[in-house]
Amino acid sequence: MPSTTFLEKPRASCALGGALATVNALPRAVPILHASPGCGAMTSVSSSGASGYLGSGYCGGNSIPTSSIGEQEVVFGGTDRLAEQMRTTAEIIDADLFAVITGCTAEIVGDDVLAVIRDYNKGPGQPPAILISGAGFKGDSLWGYDAALEALFRNYVEHTTVRIKGHVNIWGVPPAQDVWWYGNLLEIRRLLEGLGLHVNTFFTSRDSLPEIRSAASAELNIVLSPVHGISAAKAFEETHGTPYVLTDLPIGAKATRAFLYELEHLLHLDHALVEGYATQQDALYYHAFNRLADAYSDIDLQRYAIVIGTIDYAHALARFATRELGWIPELVVVTESVATADQSALRKRFEGFLENPDRTVVFETDTSRMAGHLAERWPGPNGSKYHLAFSPAFVLGSRLDRDFAESIGAGHLSVSYPVSNRVVLNRGYAGYNGALSLVEDIYSVVLAGR
Amino acid sequence: MTTLDKSGPPTREERLKACNAFGGTACGLVNGSQGGCLANYSRGFSQSSGCQLMLSMAIAGTIPESITVFHGPSGCGSCLLSMAGLSKTNQASRGNSGNIGTYWFSTNLGEVEVVNGGEARLEATLREVDRRLHPQVIFVACTCVPAIIGDDVDSVVERVQADVKARILPLHCAGFKTKIVATAYDVVYHAMLKYLLQRSDRQPTPVIADPIERLAHEERRKRTVNLLNVASMSRGDEIELKRLIEALGLEVNILPCFATPDRFLLAKDAALSVSICATHDDYFVEHLKELYGVPYLLNTIPIGTTHTRKWLFEIADFFNVRDRAERLVAAEEAEVRQALVPLRGTLQGKRTFVSAGEIRAGAQAILLQEDLGMEVLAVRAHHYDRYGDVLFQDLDPELPVNVGPSQPFEQVNLLKRLRPDIYVGHIGGNVWTARLGIPVLPIFGPSNNYMGYQGIFEVASRLHRVLRNPSYFTTLGETAATPYKRTWFEADPFTYIRNGRGANSGTRLAPATHSAPHASVLNGEGRALP
């Protein structure tokens, strides 16, 4: 990701933070940072406290083994310190995989980390170690997620030419950076298993390192994002020959049904099977969803909407709000820094459900500029008492957007990262079950005063 | 001794020979500190700790009307994402309002800047931040990257300062420069002294035309103390300490945290600076004395009756109101003792373990023993220097002591042996204790009261509450996984502490005075031997 400008309150940490959150979410994997002493704590605070209190996990937070690069290592090199740290980590930490993540200091100094890892891997009876480049100046935490998966696919997943029909790998839902990753992956997994598929979701308690190691036998890799996870998908294809497809995070019955049909097409599944499953899931969903109808019809629960989040959430939430809640998104803000050249392709993904994506979809990183974008799209009071007000309105964004929501008298729910005002355990917003949770959460805000 | 002519302060390693790795006894620690032989200890296995950049936000991040620009890659500063709401609440409790604490920026350095330098990006950011938001102060928090690639941040600051209204304060706080994160306090104070106080046009005494008003002002000034707060104390603590100082007939100016730049400038007008934590303030108060003649008190912290008494008496002695302080203390102590009676039944004899910064850890241990009748099994300090001696020499000489910034691997090893009934720890990382099934009382955070007499009662009542139902922790202990091998819990907890660089890991703590007592921690009975 290019870093072409400064940012107000970056809604992500750095590559190291993203890689760290990714490794921490893998079963029985432990990170070893080759970085300055505080990199682990700095990014752990943002990936836990700002991600629904995700927690330290198995060996994260301030337990992360860290070479703690100091002045001495910056001047003389830090490979000896890393070698020692890897050896001592293997002595006391109980893990099946170590991932050495390098930070800015190590990468600028130019330590030959690969050589240290190669030497370590020669030692008998120790868990294997892989290298993930996580220098913060290379990219943000979403970039780091991609880099971590790429390293895993290239250097941990075992090569095979055998493809097993019905086996798929799913990613594109970054742990921590997607606050709802755990619940989302569980729901996606449930849906795919409902179609009779064998799934690697990598990061749930249903996944395991042996399964991940044999991920190359899948017939298809499915990336639930048009951006995040592509490098890993390309690396996977290059290393193991497995093709990939990019699609969008599905939220709600309509998007999920479309996703299931997409899978039918891609994996040549039996049409009757998919149709039957989707119909059954639709029925379950609408049985609950339609209970809202009384309130919606009596209280008027339609809203003008502002959606703020990563491309994945901006798209998924705007689509769900428009097509299933009957809302009217007037401003959709994509918060990653996206190169101008790449913006129009991403904007196209909003066609079909937004009236005018060219006008509605904005690429903006800076929180304090959201109000200006709304003002450009919705004229303020003109002195007439019959002014068409931007009301009732609702902001689906991050915790950072609450002040903005309050300033325009809109309701607000923290959905996209960062979320420091909610606890998230296994709640997800993807699929059928996730959408029902989302509806509950949104309208619980709207009706909280009752 | 001023170092303000330099870009930043010396590190705590250089200035105080501070130590960040030690395992032994209280006596061994104090002897080592006084003999100056602790500074070279390090670890062959280490875990992530904070960095001085992160801790610099504990002051800089609280200053109203200020904005921080992190000069580095986008992740440096991301810790603030977790506290957008909290910082607003903390400000509001001090009567500060507006969008304080909700803005910060990153120069978002990329590969291009690593090669070509980041000065242009910093300059553009500073100018734009000033144009967009008109803050009074902009902190430039310099991360590892510009420190290694050699950006001349001070020159950029001088250049931009000539054109903007905001006062720009560079913080030289690259994480790799020090392992004693408390250096961060010196870094922020250094910048505030150099760029705010020294460059302010204000005279120590404002020009007041009316002679009677002038006299009144001078009289007030002579009775005003700077009460130096820390971000990890509550508004309740501030109110308690203010109440006690005012009861001596004095006035209080609370700073630096949550104080506007204008209020900070008043620091040089006070009659006395009173610190509640030497770890936080020693660099600042010494400078304030040297530059503006403001004397200071730095010896102790008002935690527990003994040290609150010492703290108040020192202030009283300075202003020559000892009688008044003795009456105040006698009444306060009697009242709190009475209040503790119903709680002491639960607390008496309970076994506890304390972990915090050196000053608060030592003082808290004394509070738990003396005021609450609890048994302290061990004390951990984030780091150690001579300012801890006054407290640690009052502890049982054979008490097991461990010094380490976080380093939960040593802590869980100790805890498994000692099995306290309850653990009292600085906020951040207490989960590793909780996961052993040990009930945790988090203290030393912005939402907890623990100072003065109110603090004693509050800590006691919270301990009492936690002990009434520790089920959450018990269940956690039964169900949470540990990342350590079983063999680690059988090993010496200080296996990886070594004396001096280059020694192999696994080297025992060298001096016999240290290694002999800490063996007593390791008798495998889950109990420290006297």
Task: Explain what the structure shows.
Chain A has 450 residues and is an alpha/beta fold. Chain A is built from 19 helices and 13 strands. Chain A has 3 domains: 141 residues, Rossmann fold; 104 residues, Nitrogenase molybdenum iron protein domain (Rossmann fold); 119 residues, Nitrogenase molybdenum iron protein domain (Rossmann fold). A 5-stranded parallel beta sheet of chain A has the order 11-10-9-12-13, with helices on both faces. In chain A, helix 1 crosses helix 2. In chain A, 56% of the residues are buried. Chain B has 530 residues and is of the alpha/beta class. Chain B has 3 domains: 157 residues, Nitrogenase molybdenum iron protein domain (Rossmann fold), CATH 3.40.50.1980; 114 residues, 3-Layer(aba) Sandwich (Rossmann fold); 179 residues, 3-Layer(aba) Sandwich (Rossmann fold). Chain B is built from 23 helices and 16 strands. In chain B, helix 13 links the parallel strand 9 and strand 10. The longest helix of chain B is centred in the middle third of the chain and has 26 residues. The two termini of chain B are 43 Å apart. The interface between A and B is large, with 81 and 79 residues. Strand 1 of chain A pairs antiparallel with strand 4 of chain B, so a sheet runs across the interface.
Strand percentage of chain A = 5-15%
Termini separation of chain A: 45 Å
Unreliable spans of chain A are: none
**What is the C-level CATH assignment of the largest domain in chain A?**
Alpha Beta
Number of strands of chain A: 13
Nearest-angstrom radius of gyration of chain B? 24 Å
Globular, elongated, flat, extended or rod-shaped: what is the shape of chain B? Answer: globular
Name the features:
heterodimer, A: Rossmann fold, 5-stranded parallel beta sheet, 4-stranded parallel beta sheet, 13 strands, B: 530 residues, alpha/beta, Rossmann fold, 3 domains, 6-stranded mixed beta sheet, 14% strand, globular, disordered C terminus
